[in-house]
Write a structure and sequence with these properties.
The chain has 411 residues and is an alpha/beta fold. The protein has two domains: 151 residues, Beta Barrel (Lyase, Ornithine Decarboxylase, Chain A, domain 1), CATH 2.40.37.10; 247 residues, TIM Barrel, CATH 3.20.20. The strands form three sheets. Strands 4, 14, 15, 16, 17, 18, 19, 20 and 21 form a nine-stranded mixed beta sheet that branches. It starts with a strand and ends in a 6-residue tail after the last helix. 46% of the residues are buried. It binds ligand LLP. Ligand LLP binds next to helix 10 and helix 11.
Amino acid sequence: MLEFRKDDLYIENVKLSNIAKEYGTSTYVYSKQQIVNNYESYKNAMGAKEGLICFACKTNSNGNILKILSELGAGADTTSGGEIYRCLKAGFDPLKIVYAGVGKTSEEIEYALKSSILMFNVESFEELVAIDKVAGKLKTKANIAFRINPYVNPDTHSYIVTGKKDTKFGIPYEDAIKAYLTAKKKKNINIVGMHFHIGSQILEVEPFIVAAKKVKKIIDEVEKNGIHISYIDCGGGLGIKYEPGDKVPSPKNLMSKLFPIFDKDKKFIFEPGRSIIGNAGHLLTKVLYRKISGRKSFLIIDAGMNDLIRPTLYSAYHEIVPVKKTGAKKVKTDVAGPICESGDFMGKERMLPLIEQGRYLLVTCAGAYGAAMSSQYNSRPLLSEVLVDGKQTKLIRKRASYKDLTLNEIE
Ligand code: LLP
């Protein structure tokens, strides 16, 4: 949904420089159409298979974004009571909400049960005991799947691998059957599914297939013991194209290989996050200063690691483009923010035109884990967010003020 028309970069039918002028910088900008297209590509790949596409709302939990997805019929993958709250507020059907996470508190469990969500993705034996207890107190039954760690190590950043041995996630592969047999004996537990999620920003289908085959073995064993598995929750993790050379598998590539592994009667859940919202959102920033330091050239912009932490935290690459074409000579330059840390950069050694102060740059594909992971570090108020729909723009989060910085402090 990004396109140069003559010299100006547009998102849908709106000139990005106009958004910068109207709403100020830095600001996150999202394309509604891109979100719809991304969701539809999952929905179409599902075809007639029964199941749910549950948006992993940890990637972006702005209520307006969530509402677009709930209105499209999506479900939600949540990781906290707060996320369940946001999703209910945005109109998601509770029966389309799944809840994973290694550290669910009993208050969160109670909230989820009272909200009648579809299922808990349980990550330890002690969590099972806790859920059983809270469900008993509420005189209800909790629907659960176990999150199985299939011991598969996809090729991605080490901080976002979850499906390999010795991580904190899920039930260790060798304990999976024991977990189901234990759950079968619990009075207030109703087993409905099996879950696996191996990591994020995965650019090959193969690791999903290896994991699915391992999970299938467990399902067979569990079903021999009289436990029926209705839902197979395959998690999220499909990557997106950040760098020009990245090759990205489609939901169809993935599903067409996954479905034949399992019996026909199974219902499927997918939990995509990044591949729904990642390329639909971008960070619009302004060049504050240009400087040369030693042998290096810098563009200092008004967005920092507090606004988008991915480059700092994961050495993640985000393409950076001026929103207006210029004839200025391209030089190798670092793009850095205003935060007092050397790790505060958006891009290193990029070939960019040495554009003037006050011009705008777009840090692309920042819709996932961008605003959601932002903070007020260096006492920088949280950014505004703007949703574009055709020719229309809508402010979906106003820029925070200095007053907001001290909101909950007690004098
Ligand atoms: N399901 C579960 C259980 C997850 O833990 C995650 C992501 C997802 C689904 C969604 O995965 P996706 O489709 O977005 O890859 N902050 C990191 C990524 C952390 C991923 C956490 N879990 C980043 O900025 O790259």
